């Protein structure tokens, strides 16, 4: 695990070196930081959680209502073996 952190630190330091070539207008390219990516993924996960809190219970109610309406409409009742 320690080697993995050394490798990731080396990659990050290599990616954020000051020796990156300037763009034609004289500015340096902006790199997406890992904090920004982490926040973006966290925001997406929170959004999925919020949507799931509505969709899953709603789909359960709809499917349960459809099941019981078909089951009670047939009038056969449960099959006993």
TrEMBL record:
<keyword id="KW-0472">Membrane</keyword>
<dbReference type="InterPro" id="IPR036719">
    <property type="entry name" value="Neuro-gated_channel_TM_sf"/>
</dbReference>
<dbReference type="GO" id="GO:0016020">
    <property type="term" value="C:membrane"/>
</dbReference>
<dbReference type="GO" id="GO:0006811">
    <property type="term" value="P:monoatomic ion transport"/>
</dbReference>
<feature type="transmembrane region" description="Helical">
    <location>
        <begin position="51"/>
        <end position="71"/>
    </location>
</feature>
<dbReference type="InterPro" id="IPR038050">
    <property type="entry name" value="Neuro_actylchol_rec"/>
</dbReference>
<keyword id="KW-0812">Transmembrane</keyword>
<protein>
    <recommendedName>
        <fullName>Neurotransmitter-gated ion-channel transmembrane domain-containing protein</fullName>
    </recommendedName>
</protein>
<keyword id="KW-1133">Transmembrane helix</keyword>
